[in-house]
Amino acid sequence: MKKSILKSVAFLSIVTLMASCSKDETPNTDNDGIQNGNETGIDCGGSTGVTCPDSEPSEGDGDTNANTSENLEGELSEAKTLDASKAYNLTGSYIIKDGGKLTIPAGTVIIATGGTSSYIAVAQGGQIFANGTAANPVVMTSGAANPTSSDWGGLVLCGKAPTNVGSTATSEVGDLTYGGTVSDDNSGVLKYLRVEYTGAAFNSSKEFNGVSFFGVGSGTTVEYVQSYNGGDDGIEFFGGTVNGKYLVSTNSEDDGIDFADGWQGNGEYWYISGAAKAGIEGSNNGDNSGVTPLTTTTLSNITVVGPVTEGALYFKEGGGKFTINNFYTKGINLGVKVKDTDTDAANRIEAGDLKITNMQFASPESGLEKTDYTGATQNFITEGVATGAGNGAAAPAWTAGWTKGLETAAAASSENLEGEITAEVTLDANVEYLLTASLIVKDGGKLTIPAGTVIIATGGTSSYIAVAQGGQIFANGTAANPVVMTSGAANPTSSDWGGLVLCGKAPTNVGSTATSEVGDLTYGGTVSDDNSGVLKYLRVEYTGAAFNSSKEFNGVSFFGVGSGTTVEYVQSYNGGDDGIEFFGGTVNGKYLVSTNSEDDGIDFADGWQGNGEYWYISGAAKAGIEGSNNGDNSGVTPLTTTTLSNITVVGPVTEGALYFKEGGGKFTINNFYTKGINLGVKVKDTDTDAANRIEAGDLKITNMQFASPESGLEKTDYTGATQNFITEGVATGAGNGAAAPAWTAGWTKGL
Predict the structure, then answer these.
(1) Cα(439)–Cα(434) distance, rounded to whole angstroms?
(2) Among 564, 581, 610, where does a domain finish?
(3) Which pairing describes strands 201-203 and 206-207: parallel, antiparallel, or unpaired?
(4) How many whole angstroms separate alpha carbon 690 and alpha carbon 699?
(5) Helices (H) and strands (E) in the chain, counts
(6) Do 515 and 649 share a domain, yes or no?
């Protein structure tokens, strides 16, 4: 009889569990969307990490059946390991006391049923080991039929690490002691843990967060933790030194992630979406904003997806000392919020204690303010291109399998580019980028653009990409998948946007600290082999926006760029000024294409000392190639000196296949094919230095072919004594005479 009763109880427990499981999305497509095995409404089994309960009691011993479900409450003062095959009902508080050790294996589900009284807390000296995996996370969730935020408490850890609220403070929930002097205190491991529907309130000012860390030490591991649909903050650090890596906060009814009370840990890879107030709230102390130890942290690779009502970051109650890099935001109207009355927070901003670099405001709400701080220092935010937690607004790859309710990659198919880059940023070829203003790769910055990436300029003259001295760009296209920078106009045409500008530290003849004609960036120096990166299989379209009648962008401009830079397979298409231009420097250009430029096809000046191979130029309005020494002082050194080989210029042109001007330089050109031109080499009658260089033998062209010339062809308009600097011959030019050479296949346009 006893066995029969036990079996009946077991069966009822399992039925109850199954009913509570059905509460959790029906079925839950936030995971794999497939009901597996014994699922009864809950999306369990498979890749979800949620263990399916038995649909009916097994035959056999009644005691075994009774153990398929177990209640958790009370205190734990010894080692206990849960069983992932069981369902655990959290019916009250479960406190892991000093000396206690709770181990929770991958795939374990804990179902809270006791409202505010249901929570798990780790006291000082206790430890928890939630050892989930990406495929089988540990899940703590609500047992309500229709789960919602604030159904139960949450998870609380209390350690012995320093705080600024005293060494024997009491947690706001659970009334547990925390704080001390043990910086490396170890409260265990939280890894691949999802905590759902937390935030039950004791009163209007006292409620649980999803996961709360009170004075927790750096010996504790906190990685791959999500708070989902919490009624207060998603995750909060109250002092301590613990670090948090790969954290997710989704749909919290207060802040996404909060830290205060002298927290001295660091954060990496935080993904926050759906926070009702601030994405991140960081403060020092709510009662004494100047107390020490000061909240001090370095955060990197952060995403906040709005809307938010209190900023992507709320710097409050004295703030602290924060360094944040690679901070991506989407759909927000305020970057950094600071209370007007928070004197200590303001003082820290003025002291340079808040520094944010590479902060991106993608798809902002109307009326975006980068900050509402009105003090003297406004440069604590440096805009740039950010990847955030890994994938911009979309769920990063590391969230796969164990998280719930995240934005899909499709939602992030378009991103804005503008601002400054001061660290390493890699774009995603699957994302369409809108260049809404200038994008500057600063000293120390590195922009990598993978094959197939398209950047669409929408901001007119203000839209351009520039690489400053010390910065680098790596446009790593392929013949099949070039990198493309183009216009966003409905009917694109030349001069729709700026273009691409690179500034290096190589020698020029305009000084070692010259300023670029667009972008006002410094260039020049003594570093001949300076390296500004790689441009390979890059097409730049519809460039040339003008600032005024004498100042406009080329397709691609190289200012003092060094020979350590690789420039190969680059096309300028339909540019409003020169297609490609070299202003001094030592960089070489190989496999270059200029198509339909409204000035010269390819231009070089100011002491350029690089070489060129395989240049294909067609549709240039003025000169096919313009080569000069210096427009202000044609005799200055270093002299523009170059060897060009395998060159094609297809006319008509109005200023010659080559315009040798402003002192010219020392040019050796071989295998020079032209078609449909009326002038081979143009030289200004008044250009004494250019004439002197021709007479000195500094201009030498061999195997120059004039195919299908226009009527009245002049090989040169130079009238000086030396007329033999051109030797005619049969040329193949860039590879195929006037026709597009084989190496242009796949990545070019309009040939």
Answers:
(1) 11
(2) 610
(3) antiparallel
(4) 9
(5) 4, 56
(6) no
- Same-domain check for residues 497 and 630: no
Residue 490 sits in the same domain as residue 578: yes
- Do residues 577 and 648 share a domain? no
- Which candidate, 195, 191, 204, places its Cα nearest to that of 250? 195
Q: How far apart are CA 314 and CA 345, in angstroms?
A: 11
Phi and psi of 730, rounded to 5°? -90, 125
Question: For residue 519, is it within any domain?
Answer: yes
Residue-by-residue DSSP string for 280-330: EEEES-SS-TT-SSPPEEEEEEEEEES--SS-SEEEETT--EEEEEEEEEE
How many angstroms from the chain centroid is the CA of residue 387?
A: 2
List the beta strands (DSSP E) in 504-633.
Answer: 514-515, 522-523, 533-541, 546-548, 551-552, 556-559, 566-573, 580-583, 589-595, 602-605, 612-618, 625-628
Beta carbons of 433 and 417 less than 8 angstroms apart = yes
Q: Please give the average pLDDT of every successive group of 10 residues along the chain, which has 751 residues.
A: 28 31 33 31 39 35 52 97 95 97 97 91 98 97 94 97 94 90 98 96 79 98 98 97 98 97 98 97 94 97 96 97 96 94 95 95 90 95 90 92 77 76 90 92 96 92 95 96 94 95 97 87 97 98 82 92 98 97 98 98 98 98 97 94 98 97 97 97 94 97 97 95 96 97 96 93
Q: Tell me, what's the pLDDT at 550?
A: 63
For 138, the domain range is 75-242
DSSP code, position 694: H
Distance CA 119, CA 559 (A): 63
Question: What's the pTM?
Answer: 0.69
Q: Give the count of domains, the chain.
A: 3
Q: Does a structural domain hold residue 322?
A: no
Please report whether residue 247 resides in a domain: no
- Identify whether residues 628 and 604 lie together within a single domain: no
Which has the closest alpha carbon to 132: 406, 404, 402?
A: 402
The alpha carbon of residue 597 and the mean position of all alpha carbons in its chain are separated, in whole angstroms, by 33
